Amino acid sequence: MAGRMLIDILSAKLERDLISLRTKEALAAKKRQGIRLGKPKGAIQKVSLTKIGSGSKSYSN
Description:
Layout (H helix, E strand, L loop, with lengths): L1 H31 L16 H5 L8
């Protein structure tokens, strides 16, 4: 029973390492091709808190 659990743990670690290696290789290949990685600039718009807080509704009792 303990031997089987040890094999399962080691195989899970091996699989995790292989996934990580494949991901790193794919990202390096995309960089070599000149493809920009990451979030594009301006993808998240900044929201002004004054616009949110300037509503005419009052929630106080």
